[in-house]
Amino acid sequence: MGALIPFDNTYARLPASFHMAIAPQRRAAPKLLQLNRPLAEELGIDTEFLTSEGAEILSNSARAEGADPIALAYAGHQFGQFVPRLGDGRALLLGEVVDRNGQRRDIQLKGSGPTPFSRQGDGLAALGPVLREYLVSEAMHALGVPTTRSLAIVSTGESVYRETELPGAVLTRIAASHIRVGTFQYFAARGDEAALRELADYSIARHQPDAVDAPDRYRRLLDGIAIRQADLIARWMLLGFVHGVMNTDNMAISGETIDYGPCAFLDAYDPSSVFSSIDRGGRYAYANQPAIAQWNLARLAECLLPLLSTDEAEAMGQATGALTLFAERFNAAYRAGLLRKIGLSDDAEEANWTLAQELLRRMGETKADFTATFRNLASAEASDDQAGTLIQRPELQDWLATWRERLPHEPGSVEGRAADMRRENPAFIPRNQRVEEVIRAAVDDGDLEPFRAFHAALSRPYDDQPEAQRWADPGPAAPYRTFCGT
Ligand code: AMP
Ligand code: MG
Q1: How far apart are the first and last CA of the chain?
Q2: Atom 10 in ligand 1: which residue has the minimum CA distance?
Q3: Residue 328 carries which DSSP code?
Q4: Residue 63's pLDDT is what?
Q5: Residue 4, by phi and psi: left (phi above 0), alpha (psi -120 to 50) or beta?
Q6: 463 C-alpha vs ligand 2 centroid, how far in Å?
Q7: Do residues 173 and 148 touch, judged by C-beta distance below 8 A?
Q8: Which residues of 98-131 are buried (b: 16+ CB within 10 A; e: fewer)?
Q9: Which phi and psi (to 5°) does residue 343 adopt?
Q10: What is the C-alpha to C-alpha distance for residues 114 and 112, in angstroms, rounded to an integer?
Q11: Would the CB of 89 count as within 6 Å of ligand 1?
């Protein structure tokens, strides 16, 4: 048998300017609250070991054999303002493992205590936001969206002070890497081209291995990031997901969704929906996400200019090319996805696309529930009487009639199409009112049962689960805001 956690660390070997070493810091009374066993197995980590030693190791109270705990350096544009030094202020990278599929994965602790990057912060996390990130990231994974994963929650037995006194906790987060747009910005802002090149080469080895020996490898890295981001944002848009804080330090070059703070899924369809209380200008509104991702990508491309070519015009051409690639790829992925959601193919006359746009327009006008409307549509095709009440709204009737007229022209059987649509349109998403409800039970009453029940329903989001119906119900459409004290 190998090591209990088979660490194989590479980021810690990068030059000193990339990170700061972090010593263990004992937390008062660490206790393992939640463990993701299937994920531990996928990572090749001994679950027995985690059950007995996990609380100590995964709160950085004790040093795990083979770990190299470091806080990573990065910069970032926060709400458009550049901050040259952010870094892991309340997180540390324990190390990496190569998983059962041969993929290198980061093991990160979030909320494990201060680091040299903490600035005024305490380096800690409260249990509520940790439960939230665990639930939403695992739900995103089950929905098929690239995302960081959650391995464990350890309660610290300590209090964290936000607006009030709250119980503290540490999240163990698993990621394809923690390299962000902001990591490149950190070195670019310091004018450290050697470090920039080292970071780019490291990123290529990890995320664009087919380009390692290519003469145009930096262009291929940038194009690869553009493609992954375009596909990711298309998935968000098609599921009604609003990230909430798309700062460049929260944009991973792996193409995984990262940093679940004030995120939310749309209830009533309104493209201008904003969920973060600090986003006063609506910069990170639902409908702005593709443009913001492209803006972030432009910041990355700027950093890479000196690597792309010694010829300035040539470098600019490659950078602009990546931005165009992003736009084309996003548009294609979004368009194909939206058509799949309504069970129609991409036709030459654009009639189906026009119909899809018209549905969204009416949903916006009538404030229809985003998730439930699409889910009901799948049933509405199979049989009229299965159609949920949401789809029976008078404003949608003539749209439904036109849609039903088009369906027989599509290939395949009615049943097959309905099943395909159900695979595109989830019944279960982490609706905010429900997320808050299970967090309150855990934090106020120490009752994790509702959290576990909701988590179980969310792990099969595309299946009908009559016994879990309450978790699918939209609930009263309350205006929802989350605060950034995560
Ligand atoms: P985030 O909002 O998680 O994307 O964090 C933005 C920046 O603020 C990062 O550099 C974090 O490390 C830092 N930060 C957030 N919360 C804390 C905290 N409680 N203590 C120290 N640093 C923090
Ligand atoms: Mg962040």
Answers
A1: 38
A2: 86
A3: H
A4: 94
A5: alpha
A6: 32
A7: yes
A8: ebeeeebbbbbbbbbbbbebbeeeebbbbbbbbb
A9: 70, 25
A10: 7
A11: yes
Question: Can you give the C-alpha Rg of the chain in angstroms?
Answer: 23
| CB distance 480 to 275 below 8 Å | yes
Which strands make up the sheet holding 165-175, listed edge to edge? 19-21, 70-72, 91-98, 104-110, 165-175, 149-161, 31-35
Residue 168: half-sphere exposure toward Cβ, Cα within 13 Å = 21
Find where tokens 């952010």 sit: 86
Q: Is the CB of 87 under 6 A from ligand 1?
A: yes
Between CA 317 and CA 324, with CA 319 as vertex, the angle to 5 degrees is 90
Among residues 194, 190, 218, the alpha carbon closest in space to that of 300 is found at 218
Ligand lying closest to the C-alpha of residue 78:
1
Residue ranges, the chain, pLDDT below 70: 1-2, 382-391, 475-486
The residue whose CA is least distant from atom 7 of ligand 1 is 86
- Looking at all shown ligands, the one closest to residue 122's CA atom is 1
pLDDT at position 485: 44
Q: Are 402 and 354 in contact (CB under 8 A)?
A: no
The token pair at 179 is 């390299």
CA distances from 211 to 202, 276, 360 (A): 12, 38, 40
Q: What pLDDT score was predicted for residue 149?
A: 98
Q: How far is the CA of 111 from the centre of ligand 1 (A)?
A: 9
Distance of CA 259 from the midpoint of ligand 1 (Å): 10
d(CA 137, CA 146) in angstroms, rounded, equals: 9
Among residues 231, 249, 267, 369, the one annotated as catalytic is 249
From 85, 90, 259, 284, mutation site for ligand 1 pocket: most ligand atoms within 8 A of C-beta: 90
- In the chain, DSSP finds a helix count (H) and a strand count (E) of 14, 11
Domain chopping of the chain, boundaries: 11-178, 182-340
Element holding 465 (H helix, E strand): none
Q: What is the pLDDT of residue 54?
A: 96
Local structure of residue 167 (DSSP, 8 states)? E
Which pLDDT score is estimated for 384? 56
Judge whether 385 counts as a catalytic residue. Answer: no
CA of 183 to the centre of ligand 2 (A): 11
Alpha-carbon gap, residue 481 to 278, rounded angstroms: 9
